[in-house]
Backbone:
């Protein structure tokens, strides 16, 4: 049975921790070859003489790894929920091979739309941290969640 | 020789068009299996009974394909430039197998930071469109670009 969750079940200030994601050089390079082929993402030798001094993950890759941890988390998508967009996304620190990432997720806003009585918008602040607890990325993600009392409206 | 571009070369209102990116079911599924394994992104049969009625690309995947077209574009990264973050990202229409995507990119803001005299922040509005010209995603991306007259500062 799929997870079921409604807008009314959620509260501002609730927090969640995801599982972890181990970052490998192989995956950094494979992702970046296809989606972000800059030297410091695809070429370990060239990366050493770059501003980062070593191979680092593409920001798009960090965002994608974050999505996977979010999807697998307790507050991840359920039947009827949808991603609506991102309010802000910042990359604060490099993500490097061997990093073990984990998310700290907080519900920061709940909104109802008059035009859509059967659903609400949930804004989540999703911090992606490395094993040292340093935030490598912070993200505000808007998701659409069905309302329990809006069913059939 | 790597492309060279400085903050002083850029002007608000300048526009650029990227190359194209053809979306396949195989890539939609491969990306989503790893980064966003929701049924409507990984399972064509289950997708038919979903809200989308068909297999659709993960929003993270659309963002990653957008990054690839941006990197390959005339206004893409050059030596010394870096992605700083995203101000907003919205997914407006589903991206489906067979779509041919292309970017319309506009410089919408140029900022100098007193604390960083050797570089500036360039805000780009990046619209990802399908072959019908419909925007499937819109993104405001901040990039850091070196200043010509800041070298050695």
Residues:
């Amino acid at each position: 049975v799929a997870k079921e969750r409604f807008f009314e079940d959620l509260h501002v200030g609730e927090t969640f921790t995801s599982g972890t994601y181990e970052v490998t050089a192989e995956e950094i390079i494979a992702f970046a070859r296809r989606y972000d082929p800059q030297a410091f993402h695809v070429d370990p030798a060239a990366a050493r003489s770059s501003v980062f001094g070593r191979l680092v993950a593409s920001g798009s890759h960090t965002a994608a790894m974050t999505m996977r941890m979010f999807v697998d988390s307790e507050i991840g998508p359920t039947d009827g929920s949808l991603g609506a967009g991102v309010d802000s996304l910042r990359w604060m620190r490099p993500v490097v091979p061997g990093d073990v990432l984990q998310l700290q997720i907080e519900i920061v806003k709940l909104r109802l739309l008059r035009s859509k009585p059967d659903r609400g918008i949930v804004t989540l602040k999703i911090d992606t941290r490395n094993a040292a607890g340093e935030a490598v990325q912070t993200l505000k993600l808007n998701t659409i969640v069905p309302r329990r009392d809006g069913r059939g409206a």
User: Anything to note?
Assistant: The mean pLDDT of chain A is 93. The helical segments of chain A are 25-35, 39-42, 44-48, 59-72. Chain A touches chain B through 29 residues (CB under 8 Å). The longest strand of chain A covers residues 100-113.
